[in-house]
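INFO  loader      accepted 1 record
INFO  loader      residues=500
INFO  predictor   begin
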Amino acid sequence: MSGPEREKPGEFPFTRGIHPEMYRTRLWTMRQYAGFGTAEESNRRYRYLLSQGVTGLSVAFDLPTQMGMDSDHPLAAGEVGRTGVAICSLADMERLVEGIRLDQVTTSMTINSTAAILLALYVLAARRQGADVGKLSGTVQNDILKEYIARGTYIYPPRPAMRIVTDLFAWAHAEVPEWNIISISGYHIREAGSTAIQEVAFTLANAIAYIETALKAGLAIDAFAPRLSFFFNAHSDFFEEIAKYRAARRLYAHLMKERFGAKDLKSMMLRFHTQTAGSTLTAQQPEVNVVRVAIQALGAVLGGTQSLHTNGADEALGLPTEESARLALRTQQIIGYESGVTREPDPLGGCYYVEKLTDEIESGARKYIDRIDAMGGTLAAIEKGFIQGEIQNAAYAYQQAVERGERVVVGVNRFQQGEQRLPPVFRLDPAVERQQIQRLRDLRSSRSAEQVSSRLCNLERAAQGSDNLMPRIVAACEALATLGEIADTLRKVFGEYRES
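INFO  predictor   done
INFO  writer      dumping tokens
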């Protein structure tokens, strides 16, 4: 058992945290995931949250943006600005970040299939602000594998999609060296119904696939591994969650050192963002979600997260209101400034129960990774449906336990309340979609169609060959090609993925 007498925080294999002092010298980055409607509306919310003490932006994009469709695409009807902000062009990105110095704030962008396009737009917007692009700091999720496993917002087949991911790795290493090039996400795996062990195992199996692809592309392990980051879920089983983060750190450190031969200690440090569990929030008695979020956030902090988002109490009903987003932020601030848990790195280190759970989760995750290796790796396991099947079985078992009353969900299968008055729900103005479409049409009529066509042709030729796609994507964005046009150019070459 790895106890405090044998390992200190900040020492390999980082079970007890990646920094010797942890939160004594610097708290985690406090984020509030936000984005809706137009770029201007989202910009107002970001500036409000910054004024309330948020220390990092976290951008949500709408489904058309995630799927590589412009706002006027027929399939985008009714979805523009609904689950996040609509971004179709450089003009939209500039409106999104207006008045926010991008070299003075860290930004996390939850985007995968179109991550390369959104990062290109963000970097161009920073350049136009006069920012030092080399000092831009933040994260682009860029985790396409979990889309095939758990979420479904994929565009291209897995293998060309992996090429785009690693092209971004190589380009960002040279152009934005402080940027986290991927956030390998267990969050959505857990939201789909996985267990804690499966969340760790499948997330690290995905990491192995990305690392192997990058190595095959000629990148050196210590050149890109320090900029890898992770994204985990914070569920309500308090001690299990704390142990989960510790186990993930230890297992990752050993994988990087022993499997991939990393020499730089930073390559072995698992740095991660956490979000409280949206799937645990209930529409019944929504005010009780405040308690769930607080417990989950405290577990993430005691587990050593580097960054945290806390969900709004009303998110089972709709997008969070300004008031619920503020209360969610205050939850983090009370933990950070009032609870006293930040005085000691890994305060539960050495606790018999936590150490036992840490060992059990690490062992269970290793067994899954060994099974995936035996199948030929993560891509093969996805193509065979193994990972998806394991998650589906876990989700079914959990739901059966809830329905039998073996797992208690307060307000749902026990301690129900009669008719209740629901809080105000955020409503999106339907005019948002019309406004966004008109702006898109105005952009297309005012730009140089010849320049856009030329740069999209260059991108198509690069996709047909082996040149890095990122410089061509940046050039197309600079010419005011739209996100949908760039994605469609790549669709012509790579095709679209259809799940069998």
